Amino acid sequence: MSQKRKTLVVVTGPTGSGKTALAIALAQRLDTEIVSADSRQIFKDIPIGTAAPTAQELAQAVHHLVGIHPLDQYYSAAEFEQDALRIIDGIFLRSDYAILCGGSMMYVDAVRRGIDELPTISDEVRRRAYALWESEGNEGVMARLRELDPTYADEVDPNNGKRLVHALEICMEAGVPYSTLRTGRAKQRPFRIVTLAIRLPREQLFDRINRRVDAMVTDGLVEESRRVYPLRHLNSLNTVGFKEMFRYIDGEWDLATATARMAKNTRVYAKKQLTWLQRDDSVEWLDGNSATLVEDAVKVIKAEG
């Protein structure tokens, strides 16, 4: 079926900017459904720590890929690309629009641009890669990566353990440097894509983040963290929020320190999201303080048609 008349509306922006509320309003206005593009909200049992849509929000619009995977189940951007496109195809059978909402930029771009075909990582290779990371940390993985793929080692963030391990896994599985498998070529999608991002003054955004972190703690983040604490070694929990709460549970920090560090690290993450988005000329920025935010968004979507 031709999807040339169909439009994927991407609602993105930094954490805490109001993406969920806008996506729900647009889903209601456009009579469609939402696909989550959040690499942590896809996991079960951690709705507070991932700021997942609430029960009330879920009741306002159909959401996909929220709280469906066990914490110990590996999930990649490549798998997300396949799952999201399959769901979007189904939505397009019912509507001329579909909404992709989230701030995990690798997931957003997996749908918008596609990602390179990479080998499926075997359980044995994954075990070996993570064993190295757990025993020698980022430095150990980086040293091994320099041996297998010096080109990628020169450009990767040495403090981003997830990306280091991911690259090492691919080198080990494929038997060739990860950098040789990265084409950077965008895939053509059979539908229109309109990308919207919410802009707020930085001081206001950071205040929203601080208040949301406090609310998460009030809503039970410590208790949620205690429930999953035995699984703290899993990659699904290697994320802002749980890392700080685990240090509180371990007795390294008091709760005030853990909360302050969580807020600070969330603000740093928001800056990275903004940097990523500001490099993309296709992003249509919306004023998050506009009284007509939803109408502004609809105008952009319709104007692109």
Residues in β-strands, percent: 5-15%
Write the CATH homologous superfamily of the largest domain: P-loop containing nucleotide triphosphate hydrolases
Mean of all residue-level pLDDT scores: 94
User: What is the rounded distance between the termini?
Assistant: 19 Å
Structure commentary:
The chain folds into two domains: 7-115 and 187-216 and 269-303, P-loop containing nucleotide triphosphate hydrolases (Rossmann fold, 3-Layer(aba) Sandwich), CATH 3.40.50; 123-181, Histone, subunit A, CATH 1.10.20. It is 50% helix and 10% strand. Strands 3-2-4-1-5-6 form a six-stranded parallel beta sheet, sandwiched between helices. The chain has 305 residues and is of the alpha/beta class. It is built from twelve helices and six strands. Helix 8 (202-218) packs across helix 11. The radius of gyration is 20 Å and the shape is globular.
Which descriptors apply to this entry?
alpha/beta, 6 strands, 2 domains, six-stranded parallel beta sheet, globular, Rossmann fold, Histone, subunit A, 12 helices, 305 residues
Layout of helices and strands:
Blueprint: E1 7-12, H1 19-30, E2 34-36, H2 55-60, E3 63-64, H3 77-92, E4 97-101, H4 105-112, H5 123-148, H6 150-153, H7 161-174, E5 192-199, H8 202-218, H9 221-228, H10 242-249, H11 255-278, E6 283-287, H12 293-303
Parallel strand pairs: 1-4, 1-5, 2-3, 2-4, 5-6
